[in-house]
TrEMBL record:
Molecular function in Gene Ontology: oxidoreductase activity
Keyword Transmembrane helix included in the entry's annotation: yes
Species name: Vitrella brassicaformis (strain CCMP3155)
Keyword Repressor among record annotations: no
A GO cellular component entry from the record: endoplasmic reticulum
Annotated protein name in UniProt: Uncharacterized protein
Length: 353
């Protein structure tokens, strides 16, 4: 008697669950591979000024090339003046109708100095409108073996540098461009968060925390900006093969070129977007199937590998001003080397970049 109710009830629940899973999977696949591209949206910004911070770096440089190809005029902002100048010349040669201006700026300077420099630059160049802001400057200032040192061993000044580099400088640039975007009548802001905002990054907790801040900040501010016809999107990529992560290679790493292609393909979708299919698959499997803990183990493996690479470089060349700071303790170094060796075998086979 009872089974005549129980069996159909369980069967209905089963069918509904399978249907729901199928629906979610289809929606996810559509979103990752098929949804309409941002081309029409981006074409509205043709001829507008686009400010890119960290423009001379791996990802920033690729963005600059693609955006110039789409007819946007560029304001390149970076600490590396030589690389920017070389970029300016090659962009002008490739896209003669596009204007390219450069501003050498250290985003780690005091905020009022950075803001003063930006203001002076806009005045000197007679620019009163901006259409697009892309905040690419960011990364792990404390990369290397130091990040594997215990919290109490890391100098406070260094803890704060990751926050300033990734969060404070980004907020400053966003608030700086707002009046210029309002004047322009439309705007697009693209920020670089990271997948580490979801799973954490053992070894670089300040970096992961800063990227999580950007992710939630973007969620929270999206509505407010929309009223002024400004779209904001925070990208949450996994590993990209740039100097920031010591050119790590591996099946789930994306090249800067392919990442930027996908990012611009989806930039209007906001507020949070993990654009590259490889990264989106890792995120989906990590979050829904294997669990965040597994993702964190993967991130840790990569982080030990990065530390190992930084340490081996250190023996060959002196550290730069903004470069990694290393723990000199030989026992600590040995621990990192062993961990990198062990974990990259078990979790993440990578070949040298
Ligand atoms: N690469 C990844 O795997 C990955 C993953 C997720 C998210 N992201 C995020 O994506 C963004 C771009 O990453 P990326 O790999 O392209 O970085 P990158 O190769 O390190 O490029 C960063 C650029 O910013 C410049 N820069 C450094 N310090 C600066 C300062 N104080 N002021 C102004 N510019 C400064 C760098 O110049 P120098 O070369 O002279 O230092 C470089 O040109 C970052 O926000 C990063 O956190 C990257």
């Amino acid at each position: 008697m009872l089974s005549s109710y129980v069996v159909p009830a369980f069967a209905t629940i089963g069918v509904c669950s399978v249907a729901l899973c199928a629906f979610n999977l289809t929606r996810w696949a559509y979103d990752v591979f098929l949804a309409p591209s941002s081309d029409a949206f981006l074409s509205k910004f043709r001829g507008d000024w686009c400010m890119i911070t960290g423009a001379a770096g791996g990802t920033g440089r690729c963005f600059a090339e693609r955006l110039a190809a789409k007819g946007l005029n560029l304001i390149l902002v970076d600490i590396n003046e030589g690389a920017m100048e070389e970029m300016r010349r090659s962009l002008r040669a490739l896209f003669p109708s596009v204007e390219v201006k450069t501003l050498r700026l250290d985003l780690m300077e005091e905020m009022r100095v950075v803001e003063g420099n930006l203001k002076a630059f806009m005045q000197d160049n007679g620019i009163d409108k901006i259409g697009v802001l892309l905040c690419c400057a960011g990364g792990v200032v404390s990369a290397g073996s130091l990040c594997h040192a215990l919290l109490r061993e890391r100098p406070l000044s260094l803890l704060y540098r990751d926050v300033q580099y990734n969060v404070s400088s980004t907020l400053l640039c966003c608030s700086f461009v707002l009046p210029y975007m309002k004047h322009n009548g439309r705007g697009l802001i693209m920020l670089m968060s990271s997948m580490s905002a979801l799973a954490g990054l053992p070894g670089s907790p300040e970096y992961a925390g800063a990227k999580a801040y950007l992710r939630l900040w973007t969620w929270s501010i999206e509505e407010e900006l929309r009223r002024d016809n400004i779209t904001i999107t925070a990208f949450t990529p996994g590993f990209i093969t740039t100097p920031l992560c010591q050119n790590l290679r591996g099946p789930i790493c994306a090249t800067p070129e392919s990442f930027v292609k996908w990012a611009l393909h989806k930039c209007h979708r906001g507020p949070i977007c993990n654009p590259h299919p490889k990264h989106a698959i890792v995120e989906a499997i990590g979050v829904n199937i294997l669990g965040i803990k597994y993702m964190r183990q993967q991130a840790e493996a990569a982080s030990f590998e990065i530390a190992r690479r930084v340490m081996s470089q250190k023996q060959q060349q002196p550290p730069s001003k903004n470069g990694p700071v290393l723990v000199e303790d030989p026992r600590e170094k040995e621990r990192i080397l062993k961990a990198a060796q062990k974990r990259s075998i078990f979790f993440w086979p990578m070949t040298a970049g």
